[in-house]
Structures are given as structure tokens and as C-alpha cells.
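Q: Could you fold this chain for me?
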Amino acid sequence: MKLRLQLFEFEDLPWFPKAVRAGMMDYLRFMISGLKIYQPIVPILREALRHTSQTELLELCAGAGGGTEGVWRALQVQDLPQLHVTLTDLYPQPAAWQHLHERTSGGLAFLPTPVDATRVPATLPGFRVVFSAFHHFPPAVAEAILADAVRQRAGIGVFEGAGKHWHEVALAALVMPVALLCITPFIRPFRWSRLLFTYLVPLIPMCTVWDGVVSILRLYPPNQLLALAHRADPSGAFEWRVGKARHWSGSQVLYLTGWPKSQLQIEK
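A: Sure. Below is the predicted structure, expressed as C-alpha cells.
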């Protein structure tokens, strides 16, 4: 699918009820973590960390932190036992993040204050990662996120948990609502509001299905991701990699990674 539509998602709207947004994020975190959606990009991220000599991941636009724990654990096994992750977002979710912090014995930490991905404070070190969120941004903002990483010479990886195919749109529309109704009682941490807005006033299922379909339509295909990267890095100071990694289920994960070139590469 080469089409990209900049439609709206409910979770992006500033007036959208926080309890409903939190329930939607909890569901996505549960599904992404349970299905290990981002396991295929572990070697790709490992290579990027090797090029930057980083043992710190700075997650931008973290949402509820879906998939981060699994990636962190897999990288720890791959000779990165000291790897540390800091979760950040313009709209922090400390309640969801505290659960991850405790589950990982502090391996995943978080900042409870807002962090703008287009203007990341220089005091926040680490290889920057964006999971399942880059599609939310129109081209100008997406480019600004990459440009800020280039400006601060901070490596960055953008990962989307789909390959942008029409069958994924059908799955989001038909399978997601059934899965959500079945698994909601098992999502932790427990929230009464999640049950209320799933079964009695079904705003979470309806809005999640809409946002799931729209998310796929908003994904940047690889050629557009690379074009954004080149506009953000007009001097060619970064090495950029783009592509799709295959998940065990047959689905794909879109990715873009970039890191500062060595002086020898720049001179060539």
C-alpha cells in the first residue's frame, strides 16, 4: 500500500477523555507485548546500538510502553546486560510506566514530565527510539523529530508494528474488536474505568478499531521514511537504513534507523 492518508485518531485529540485513552493504550501495550510484535527488529536495533556504542535507549512518544519490555529483555540476552531504557512522552502515563518499572526491576525507567520529541533536552542521553507512534505526525513534524536527532548527533530508530498492507486494515477492523472484548479482564494494572468503557459504554472498542485502521493508513512506507530522513539530514551526516522485518506470524514491521557517520565516512 503506497497510499498515505493524514486522518485523525481519537487518542491524538486533546479533549479526548483520559480514561478512555488510557484504556486504549493499555490494550495496545498488552497485544504488542503478548504477540512480541517488535522481536524482529531486535538485531536491527542491536546493530544501531553497536554503531553508536550506546547502552541507553531513550523512548520518545512512548504511550503505554507497548513492546518495550520485550525488546529490552531480548537485547539484554544479546550481550547488553547493562542496557537501560527511559520512557518519555509529551503526555506521560506514569501509572502504566510504573507497572513496567516494577516488572523490570528498574530496567525501564520513566520521566513523569512532558518531553517534546521535536526538541528533546540535551540532558536526556541515549539512542532514541519511537515505537508505534511515528505515523501520528504529519510530514513536517516527523521530519522535525529526525532533524532534532541529527542536530544533537543522537542515533534514532523509528519502528511501526505493521507492514502497511490492506489485509492489516481488514484484521484491525474485524479481529481487533473481538480480541479486545476477550482479553480486557486480563490486562494489568487493573482499572474499573477500563471495564466501564469497554462493556457498558463501549468507547474503548469503537475508538480503538477506528484508530487501528487509521494508523495503518497513516503509516509512512519505506520510500517516504527515507525521504523524510534525507530532508532532515541535508548534509548527509547520518547513515540511514530503512526496510521491513518479518514477524513470525507473517506480518511485517516497518523500520528506519540512523546514526552519525564516522569522520572517515564523511571524508569519503
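A (continued): The two ends are 36 Å apart (CA to CA).
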